[in-house]
Amino acid sequence: MTRQNKKPLIAPSLLAANFAKLGEELAAVEAAGADWLHLDVMDGHFVPNITFGPLVVKALRPLTNMPLDVHLMIAPADPYIAAFAEAGADHISVHPESGPHLHRTLQAIRGLGKKAGVVLNPATPVDSIAHVLDLADLIMVMTVNPGFGGQAFIASQLTKIAALRRMIDETGRDIVLQIDGGITAQTAPAVLAAGATCLIAGTAVFAAPDYAVAITAIRDAAAAAVAG
Ligand code: DX5
Ligand code: ZN
Question: For 111, phi and psi rounded to 5 degrees?
């Protein structure tokens, strides 16, 4: 089976969940077929919103075997990476703009035994990560400006996704290409066709009446459109 015919990994973003019952929400998306749980960490400085820190990651860790996909929207990120690793994050992703030494940051994440990711804002060029691909286990393309759920998908990022697909293929390594922001059953087919392998969805899952129906709709819409 080629990559294009594969169904994408689906990572619901807890940002859109009911924060008064995070444990129940986690269990519900896991039962509904989620592959990973995406956790958005925001500091009110790097992005104009504040969410949660390592304590919440630590509280959720024993509740699931799903990989915890931690998206750090904080600056600086370096002083907090060990805390997220100790809290039980499996993947730790950072934006290049969150510190002056991306290469060192990715080394630090891997040094803690975690998968390292890099996240590109809509205006951040692919060249910014060209020389750290050897340290990346995941690359995430933001298809909204980071900070809030429920925003509209930015279609101009499709060419960036395709460019990153080519760059990843040239490495010969199985780097996960994640897309974050505005993912729905309507937008998923184009991002999968451009080469994504993991779709992050907040509102499209947690605002839906039935999480399993919502997750399946995104996964199957994407795979069906690509299989053609
Ligand atoms: C935005 C976050 C996203 C967000 C996506 O800064 O990184 O993970 O939860 O939410 P939706 O799917 O609603 O665009
Ligand atoms: Zn995110």
Answer: -65, -25
